[in-house]
Amino acid sequence: MLELKKVYHYYGKAKALEEINLTVEDNSLDAVIGPNGAGKTTLLRAISGLEEIDRGRIIFNGERIDELEAHEIAGRGIAHCPERRRLFYDMTVMENIQLGAFTLKDKAKYSKLLDFVFEIFPRLHERMKQRAGTLSGGEQQMLAIARSLMANPKLLLLDEPSLGLAPKVKSRIFEAILQIKQEGTTTLLVEQDAVLAMAVADTIYVLEDGKIEMSGTREELEKEPRIKRVYLGI
Predict the structure, then answer these.
(1) What is the pTM of this model?
(2) Cα 153 from chain centroid?
(3) Do 8 and 17 contact (CB within 8 A), yes or no?
(4) What topology is assigned to 2-230 in CATH?
């Protein structure tokens, strides 16, 4: 579904991404892990067109998209759930959800998606008329994911969904991410909590200093001494 071929991105003379080669298969849930400042957020922003790459190609469903505008990429079926949620805080939960479906014309599909987001996040149904800015951090993250799902994406980009959340809330968010996968939405997850990410992902990419240092399944990476030491605390 998605392929990045030798992608480079610079901030001035500093390399943010260096020769990124990455593939996401249809119906998969893949994860990118790495320390702060590794380039994880930049990677997702490059895919969704919020950052213009300097070299390389990004191909989505057989079409090159790195030369398209962000709204055109969204129109192809890529939804980006950004770091720190970026909600419309003065609007209600329901209004945020409805804005997620702004480009969706199929009313039957809208109803089905709405039922699904309320099924995986029942708290949002309880808070429909509440302003987004008054929600807890976990509820805001649920709303950010729900808003992205309402676009009916072919590919969902999730940036640090567990950031700043309590362990119990993190677990609930990741249960929802697994439900999203089971519904057939292909997902690329960026996550600093390597233990959580590796528990759910089909393929894990380790990004450090803008470069993918290694990749593989959970079983493969757990055999790597450095992964065990640095990311899993073993």
Answers:
(1) 0.91
(2) 11
(3) yes
(4) Rossmann fold (3.40.50)
Pull the structure tokens for residue 44: 């997702």
Whether the CB-CB separation of 61 and 234 falls below 8 Å is answered with no
For helices 167-182 and 107-120, give the axis angle rounded to 10 degrees. Answer: 140
Quick: pLDDT tens for 106-143.
888 899 999 999 999 999 999 999 999 999 999 999 99
Both tokens of 180, joined, read: 């999203």
Sign of the CA dihedral running 48, 49, 52, 54: positive
Let me know: does 132 contact 92? Beta carbons within 8 Å.
yes
Sign of the CA dihedral with 83 first, then 84, 88, and 92 last = positive
Q: Which among 201, 203, 161, 160 has a CA at the least distance from the CA of 181?
A: 201
Show the low-confidence residues of the chain (pLDDT under 50). Answer: none
> Where do we find the tokens 């001494």?
225
The two beta strands, 203-208 and 211-216, are antiparallel
Q: What's the confidence (pLDDT) of residue 206?
A: 96
Element (H or E) spanning 115, and its range? helix 107-120
Distance CA 196, CA 209 (A): 22
Residue 71 pairs in a beta bridge with none
Angle at 179 between CA 173 and CA 181, to 5 degrees: 110
* Strand locations in the chain (E): 2-11, 14-24, 29-33, 55-60, 63-64, 78-81, 155-159, 186-190, 203-208, 211-216
Domain extent listing, the chain? 2-230
Contact 126, 119 (CB under 8 A): no
